[in-house]
């Protein structure tokens, strides 16, 4: 029983190179030598595993790799360029919200006066339609400009968002 065979490396190389089937002398030696027989068995199992693994590998074409890299670079550049705009939209939305709250705060005294006037004159209104139309007209004259301004300030960020997302599609 030989613990170290000088031909063990040659047997393993022949198995991985696929030359063992044509080399009768090497196969006869591997059957006779315990060390080379074990090496042959182990190398055969490893080669079968390597061949199975290589059979599952699908390398894409070079053009496809370049195309994917270009798409990825373009996407990363777009994301980096859009980052300041995202911050600007957030700041603009916060400013619009603050401005809307400020306008409502300024309009509050006018709205309170309109409601007070309505409360004072509610008992004197005759049931006919002319007096009711005058009342509605008076309330709208006092509150409509503030309502339109508040609606514009609230809807402007929504319109801007819709316009910018439709442009990106």
Describe what this molecule looks like in 3D:
- The chain has 169 residues and is an all-alpha fold.
- The protein has 2 domains: 8-56, no CATH class; 83-168, no CATH class.
- Helix content is 84%, strand content 0%.
- α1 (8-17) runs parallel beside α3 and α2 (24-32) crosses α3 (34-56).
- The chain is rod-shaped and about 125 Å long.
- The model has no long low-confidence stretch (mean pLDDT 79).
Mean pLDDT: 79
N/C terminus separation = 76 Å
Number of domains: 2
Got a strand count?
Answer: 0
Give a quick account of the main beta sheet: strands, pairing sense, barrel closure: none
Strand content: under 5%
Question: In one word, what is the shape?
Answer: rod-shaped
Global Rg: 43 Å
- Elements, N to C (H/E): HHHHH
Task: Point out poorly predicted stretches.
Answer: none
Count of DSSP H/I helices = 5
Helix content: over 70%
Structural class: mainly alpha
């Amino acid at each position: 029983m030989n613990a170290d065979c000088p031909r063990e490396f040659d047997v393993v190389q022949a198995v991985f190179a696929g030359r063992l089937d044509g080399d009768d002398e090497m196969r006869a030696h591997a059957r006779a030598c315990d060390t080379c027989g074990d090496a042959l068995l182990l190398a055969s199992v490893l080669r079968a595993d390597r061949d199975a693994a290589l059979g599952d590998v699908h390398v894409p074409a070079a053009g496809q790799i370049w195309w994917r890299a270009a798409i990825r670079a373009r996407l990363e550049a777009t994301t980096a360029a859009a980052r300041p705009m995202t911050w600007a939209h957030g700041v603009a939305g916060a400013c619009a919200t603050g401005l809307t709250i400020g306008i409502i705060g300024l309009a509050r005294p006018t709205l309170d006066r309109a409601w007070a006037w309505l409360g004072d004159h509610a008992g004197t209104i005759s049931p006919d339609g002319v007096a009711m139309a005058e009342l509605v007209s008076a309330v709208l004259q006092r509150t409509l400009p503030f309502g339109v301004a508040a609606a514009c300030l609230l809807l402007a960020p929504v319109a801007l968002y819709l316009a910018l997302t439709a442009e990106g599609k």
